[in-house]
Amino acid sequence: MEVNIHADALVLAGADNNGRLRDYDPAKHEALIDINGRPMVRYVVEALKKARGIRNIGVVGPKEALERALSDLGVQVVERGGSILENLRKGIEALEPRGNVLIVTSDVPLITGEAIDDFLRRCMDRPAEVWYSIVRKEANEAKFPRMRRTYQRLMDGTFTGGNISLLNPKAIDAYESLMEKAIAMRKRPWLLCSVLGLKCIVKFLLGRLTVRDVEERFRRLAGIRGVGIESPYPEIALDVDKPSDLELVRSLFAG
Q: What's the rounded Cα separation, in Å, for the pair 57 and 74?
């Protein structure tokens, strides 16, 4: 299918391997954890290069190590900063994008060019400044029944967050404080309702909170439009951040 929306892409690869995965792989940085004989970040970059809707690709993280791992892929590598938000800013500044930027984490090695293009097409149908991917629980469990994810039950269904998003770089300043809170709470989504306010909390407790409710609250708080884009590709939600994820992904590639 033709892709009518194009974007530059930025891969966030700045995390050190000092958490739960450290005992399962000796790599100094999470992006360089070995999967089937190759660093994890390569799978993400190669998927972006296969996507028809992606123009330039930047990767922000430990520059020297990433340049060695990605030397043959023709991507721009940017030295990381001290936080995810700083990395986002540094990467976008280096990319000098002509339009929207697709943000992808380096820990989704199963992502495909097809999934990326599908997400871009769906974003085109919802005018906004920020597009965030979500995946339905049923889609996840149908394809990856062994995958353990944190889900949030809304009136529309039960969802988990994906690991790709699209944004207008000019919108970063408008929702910087919200982004910092979302990043801090990204592994505890139930706490995000506290950011959204009392009305959303009450609706959530009553089982009546919808995706549109969250979108409207985001618009009121940030002054820009952010929308949730449901993707049918669970690959974008399978991020390798715990040993069971790494075991699952390695077994899938081995098979």
A: 8
Closest CA to 19 of 187, 179, 178, 236: 187
The tokens describing 175, both together, are: 């929702």
Q: Are 143 and 171 in contact (CB under 8 A)?
A: no
Fold of 7-254: Spore Coat Polysaccharide Biosynthesis Protein SpsA; Chain A (3.90.550)
Residue type, 45: V
Report the run of H or E that residue 11 belongs to, with start and end.
Answer: strand 7-12
Sorted by where each begins, the domain ranges of the chain are 7-254
Closest among 134, 142, 200, 196 to 164, alpha carbons compared = 134
Summarize pLDDT for 103-112 with one digit per residue, the tens.
999 999 999 9
- What b/e sequence results for 110-128 when a residue is b if at least 16 CB atoms lie within 10 Å of its CB, and e otherwise? bbbbebbbbbbbbbeeeeb
Is residue 103 a contact partner of residue 164, using CB atoms and an 8 Å limit? Answer: yes
Which of left, alpha, beta for 197 (phi over 0: left; psi -120 to 50: alpha)?
A: left
List beta partners, residue 165. 103, 132
pLDDT tens-digit profile of 5-17? Answer: 789 999 999 999 9
Q: Could you give the CA distance from residue 58 to residue 74 in angstroms, rounded to a whole number? A: 9
